[in-house]
Design a protein that fits this description.
Elements: H1 10-17, H2 28-61
Length: 65
């Protein structure tokens, strides 16, 4: 059985978090979850920008007609 060196047990994480030498420890899975949550909020923000752009374009072009 192959033991992967990047998999850290929960006990080791707690020991490293309490250490004075280690400033932080992040797992790849947790980092991916945080990135996905951030991208979801950016996705809704893009829709708001598009809606604002359509309203702004209509407000600029309509008085010209």
């Amino acid at each position: 059985m192959v033991k992967h060196f990047w998999k850290i047990s929960l006990e080791s994480k707690e020991r490293y978090r309490e250490s004075d030498v280690v400033s932080g420890i992040d797992g790849r899975h947790e980092r991916i979850e945080q990135s996905e949550e951030l991208m979801e909020s950016f996705g809704s923000l893009i829709y708001i920008y598009v809606l604002f752009g359509v309203i702004l374009c209509f407000a600029i072009i309509y008085p010209v007609l």
